[in-house]
Amino acid sequence: MSKVILKKSSVAGRIPTIADLDYGELALNYTDGKLYYKTSGNTVAEIGGTSATLSGTALRVVTTVNVTSTQTVFSPTGGYVVDALDVYRNGVKLLPSLDFTATNGSTVTLLVAAENGDVVELVAYTIEALADGYTGAEADARFQLVSQKGVANGYPSLDSSGLIPSSQLPPNNYITIDSAIAMAIALG
Q1: 7: phi then psi, degrees, rounded to nearest 5
Q2: Which strands sit side by side in the sheet containing 71-74, from one edge to the other?
Q3: What is the pLDDT of residues 115-126, one digit of tens each?
Q4: Are 136 and 106 in contact (CB under 8 A)?
Q5: 70 touches 113 (CB < 8 A)
Q6: Distance CA 96, CA 14 (A)
Q7: Main-chain dihedrals φ then ψ at residue 172, nearest 5 degrees
Q8: Sheet containing 58-66: which strands, arranged edge to edge?
Q9: 59: how many CB neighbours lie within 10 A of its CB?
Q10: In the predicted model, what is the mean pLDDT of residues 58-76?
């Protein structure tokens, strides 16, 4: 009787490198329950396994698209880190390079178009240390952009002594609240 012997690891989270595998060879991480192979695109891909448990070290952003017409290009909310993205079509996990391409951090292209009624789910993982827990879009919305510094309707810059330059302050012909209160008290 023949045996199939797999390369194996018991180290949690260990993923084989390209150099670890030949084409057609499989590697099993039996602690994680994941099976890996080398793709024709010279990358390592996962065949199956249990879902990763996120312990505060990663941000998981899920974008679900209910397809209403033929569609190949999808944009995950907040973008994604290349090689840190799972794509599902009608609940079936798609394989990078074989079923979709995702190389620019903003769009995912299915190699076979999704049809009306399909559900495409994009699961992007971002390491918190890289983004402090914010996606790119969330950071842009939350923080002020450098391009808005010192311009009209933006926010003021500071001079070398840490003060707002007088050129960025409103003119002195405005009545301040303090002077309006003083005037109301004086007039009775």
Answers
A1: -70, 145
A2: 71-74, 108-114, 100-101
A3: 999 999 998 887
A4: no
A5: yes
A6: 19
A7: -80, 0
A8: 58-66, 119-127, 85-89, 92-93
A9: 19
A10: 88
Query: Contact, 140 vs 133, CB < 8 A?
Result: no
Please check whether residue 145 is in contact with residue 87, taking contact to mean a CB–CB distance below 8 angstroms. no
pTM of the model: 0.42
Six token digits for residue 93 = 């996990």
The whole-angstrom separation of Cα 22 and Cα 16 is: 11
- β-pairing, 34-38 vs 44-48, is antiparallel
In one-letter notation, the amino acid at residue 170 is P
Q: Tell me the DSSP string of the chain.
A: ------EEE-STT----GGG--TT-EEEETTTTEEEEE-TTS-EEEEE-PPPPP-SSEEEEEEEEE--S-EEEE--TT---TT-EEEEETTEEPPBTTTEE--SSS-EEEEEEE-TT-EEEEEEEEEHHHHTT--HHHHHHHS--GGGBTSTTSB----TTSS--GGGSPPTTSPPHHHHHHHHHHH-
What's the Rg (C-alpha) of the chain? 27
What's residue 127's pLDDT?
58
d(CA 83, CA 74): 16
Question: In the block, which residue shows the tokens 């292209």?
Answer: 109
Token digits of residue 58: 């990663």
